[in-house]
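In practice, a research group might receive sequence data for several interacting partners and want a quick structural hypothesis before committing to experiments. The following worked case mirrors that situation: the sequences arrive first, and a predicted assembly follows.
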Amino acid sequence: MYDLIILGAGPAGLAAAAYAINKRLETLVISEDLGGKINYHLTLAGFEGHEIITGADVVEKFKRQLEYLNFAHQIDRATKLVANNRHMTVLTQAGKKFDARAVIIATGASPQRIEVPGEKRLIGRGLSYSSVSHAQLFIDREAALFGCSGRALRSAAELAEIAKRVHLILPDRGEMDSVLGQKLRAHPRVTLYENYELREVRGEDYVESVVVRGKGETSEIPVQGLFVELGLIPNSQLAADLVLTNAAGKIVVDSKCATSRPGIFAAGDVTDVFVEQVLISVGEGAKAALSAYEYLLNQ
Amino acid sequence: MYDLIILGAGPAGLAAAAYAINKRLETLVISEDLGGKINYHLTLAGFEGHEIITGADVVEKFKRQLEYLNFAHQIDRATKLVANNRHMTVLTQAGKKFDARAVIIATGASPQRIEVPGEKRLIGRGLSYSSVSHAQLFIDREAALFGCSGRALRSAAELAEIAKRVHLILPDRGEMDSVLGQKLRAHPRVTLYENYELREVRGEDYVESVVVRGKGETSEIPVQGLFVELGLIPNSQLAADLVLTNAAGKIVVDSKCATSRPGIFAAGDVTDVFVEQVLISVGEGAKAALSAYEYLLNQ
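A structural hypothesis for the assembly, expressed as tokens:
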């Protein structure tokens, strides 16, 4: 019986593991890989080469610690989480079964894809699902952004402060009637494509253009990048029957990262907390570990 | 007129500044010093010398960035915060006046002192107000802990797992009737001093003993360290009339670090969020900056 099982080893899961082990909890991390799937950078404007903090540095250290403590980690996929009377059981793809007195869910979220030709091939080659992470690369370049949620419009506004031109492709009106939508409508560096579909992403090695269709016509827009901002799908299926989730499927947590069920905690992109940067995920993971520790002390 | 004024430059304030500047907000930090007053370490048990992550490393990088950007920082003390119709005004001890469209309060908290002879002189020399940060130093050593809140008892329980002996000095019953209190009562390495006062801390260069009084007698207990766990007093006076605070004076924030007043955000120890480790404060600071940025985009 472990004290704590952590599902997922992205920034939140790795930070939770480091803090839990530091608290001398018998800890097991179950994840398919270490470090999560995304590269995170925080580069201060005008600072290139002088002082750069990357969330990646912090996550890398946590990752090396967990690699060193290999007894504390299983490369596997949790397929089922069962809440028993006084403990939790995790079943895995490899057919293993682990018990713990507490669980932290840090399984992250996956970006919603458009599912069009060229998309998969050009991921990381000009196509990104996180403009908040990569907008800075578009100084004096043209980019397309596909999405119409409040978050997508915020990304477009931010991008428009940096890029030479933003082609904002809106599948429907979305949040365009908001204050921010009005600003984007009036913005000299934003071109709107309202009620347009995105049909294809083209480019040899990197994104070179996007093909859109609207008002009965198909056209090709030359761009150096495409941001797909259709939101994130939380990887919360495992716990969906056990804990409270919101309309978007995100696990609802309190300010201590506790879910609606005692003994189950959650951190990072899988939760309803505002997590856009790796150092926020790290903080949330640390918080979840300290909460679990406090919970276990009182058992 | 600044976009954003950040009050305080501990881990939360420094992280907020880094993220705000990265978002190209016109940012000013007002604080008396940079880096806050406490040293923070996270050393993994058994890891000394191999892989150590210190929150201090992260904070140090933020600090150097802000030192470099000296136009973004005023060494001064905010004495008054005024909320106007569409902006905030900060008045300082040096008689200056700064305006901003948004404010982040990250002024931290100060430990409650006992106010006894020897206390001030031995701070950092065996006397600490944060057992959560320094408990690990007490492997095979004897320590006294003064306090009776739930948090104090958790600290005592954690310390008892590490230290040779914990002398738990309880000014009153406090939370001793809880599950955790019962555990401490039965713990073989905990000696209880119920309804004892702490009268003096003694030691030449480092803590060597504490003088306590209870049951009509005064006695001296030899220890290598004293943890004073009387809680933290949030430095929230500046905003007390402007935003909602809880019974302990902590600023109430939502999961986006927003206070009850639009345009005023708060992060770190000054808030009601569970902040015990520097990397949690860093995450909260980052969150506050991104929230302020989002708020300003919608103005």
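Before designing any experiment, note the following. Chain B touches chain A through 49 residues (CB under 8 Å). Chain B is about 25% helix and 30% strand.
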